[in-house]
Amino acid sequence: MYDIVVTIIGWTGVAAYIIAYAMLSLGWVRADKINYHALNAVGGVCLVIFSYAAADTPNLFVNFIWILIAGFSITRILKMRR
Hints:
By secondary structure, the chain is an all-alpha fold. It has one domain (about 1-80). The protein has helices spanning about 1-25, 35-55, 55-80. α1 (about 1-25) runs antiparallel to α2 (about 35-55) and α2 (about 35-55) packs antiparallel against α3. It is globular and about 45 Å long. The chain starts with a helix and ends with a helix.
């Protein structure tokens, strides 16, 4: 059961990344909006969980960095709104 849950989490992360990129590419969302970066952060969190469970250190690292970038972007957008 653990493997199934981790796999579902991993595929959810993949879907979040693909949806975010597709929406950006199609012009449905802009890179200066929180929803784009939030979707990337969700994808990153899911893939960090999956990578940790799979002991896949390179993917764990790159997805952790992806989360940091999304977090910094969200923070910047929120500061600009004030």
